[in-house]
């Protein structure tokens, strides 16, 4: 008899997992959840833009004779992150 009880419990667990997964994937977000996601994306892109501006300033303060190729690569990474932050904000 323990096998039947274990089989019944495992079937219940599987049905609960399948039902909860399908509910999550098919149910649209309500207004409150969309608003939270929107606020989080605006905040993260704003922080990214602010950090990009600070990094532009710091890289701009390096004397041109001391600038090496590595700083140019870092500058390109910051530019692309800055563009990504602007795209997410818009």
Automatic annotation (TrEMBL):
Membrane spanning segments where?
A: 36-59, 71-89
Which InterPro entries does UniProt cross-reference here? Glucose_rcpt_Git3-like_N
Q: Respond yes or no to whether keyword Membrane is given for this record.
A: yes
Q: Which organism is it from?
A: Brettanomyces naardenensis (Yeast)
Pfam name, any one:
Git3
Keyword vocabulary terms for this entry = Membrane, Transmembrane, Transmembrane helix
| Superkingdom of the source species | Eukaryota
UniProt domain Glucose receptor Git3-like N-terminal: residue ranges: 37-90
Q: What is this protein called?
A: DEKNAAC102660
């Amino acid at each position: 008899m323990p096998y039947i009880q274990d089989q019944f419990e495992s079937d219940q667990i599987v049905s609960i997992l399948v039902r909860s997964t399908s509910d999550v994937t098919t149910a649209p977000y309500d207004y409150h959840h969309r608003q939270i996601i929107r606020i989080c994306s605006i905040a993260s892109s704003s922080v990214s833009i602010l950090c990009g501006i600070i990094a532009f300033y710091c890289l701009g303060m390096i004397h041109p004779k001391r600038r090496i190729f590595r700083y140019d690569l870092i500058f390109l990474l910051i530019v692309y992150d800055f563009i990504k932050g602007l795209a997410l904000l818009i």
